[in-house]
Amino acid sequence: AQSVTQLDSQVPVFEEAPVELRCNYSSSVSVYLFWYVQYPNQGLQLLLKYLSGSTLVKGINGFEAEFNKSQTSFHLRKPSVHISDTAEYFCAVSGFNQAGTALIFGKGTTLSVSS
Amino acid sequence: GAGVSQSPSNKVTEKGKDVELRCDPISGHTALYWYRQSLGQGLEFLIYFQGNSAPDKSGLPSDRFSAERTGGSVSTLTIQRTQQEDSAVYLCASSSGPLNTEAFFGQGTRLTVV
């Protein structure tokens, strides 16, 4: 079974500052990793994903994340945030096997960007 | 359809009543997921359907919860004898296959048990 821990429930940051949202996972099999974003009063949408290959993945809106297998982490970063990045961010993991496994989410991190 | 459709969008029910929540996944998507979203709890996995395989029911919180997926398409989540702690937003998602390349989410059903 897989599990996800998002280490920070809330991250307040000023506009144009860098941000890192932390995510650690646990799994007995190889994994796929995802970050989803939920803007206020909207549905969830995919921000970026790691399936294989380069451990640094880039997503929409200038976000990127790095897969670190030894530390079982998949932290999300952005060098300069905007007010519009205020949202809830969810890290998710899926185990890799032929039948597929459920997509398991963390509890989310609320990013609040202020001016 | 163009996206994942859930109905109803809002449901208010009395404690002890049964409710059914419906999900229409994206056409052709073989994987379907149900989640429950409560404040501060993130997305709690409930159940996962993949093609003709037996569903992964490991996330269902009690035997009052059940789900079906008919014909590999539409899914219904049923909650029997609802309790106030069942109040939450129930989200459905679908993806094109078992490798979970991207799950597309519906807008959810907000369930309020009074």
Derived structural class of chain A: mainly beta
What general form of chain A does the structure show?
A: globular
Secondary-structure element pattern of chain A, one letter each = EEEEEEEEEEEE
Number of strands of chain A: 12
Percent strand of chain A: over 45%
CATH-defined fold name of chain A: Immunoglobulin-like
Number of alpha- plus pi-helical segments of chain A: 0
CATH class of chain A: Mainly Beta
**Percentage beta strand of chain B:** over 45%
> Portion of residues in helices of chain A?
under 10%
Largest interface: A-B, 26 and 28 residues
CATH fold-level name of chain B: Immunoglobulin-like
Low-confidence stretches of chain A: none
Major β-sheet profile of chain B? 6 strands, mixed
The ordered H/E elements of chain B are EEEEEEEEEE
Query: What's the N-to-C terminus distance of chain A?
Result: 41 Å
CATH second-level architecture of chain A = Sandwich
Features:
heterodimer; A: 115 residues; mainly beta; Immunoglobulin-like; 6-stranded mixed β-sheet; 4-stranded antiparallel β-sheet; 0% helix; globular; B: 114 residues; 48% strand
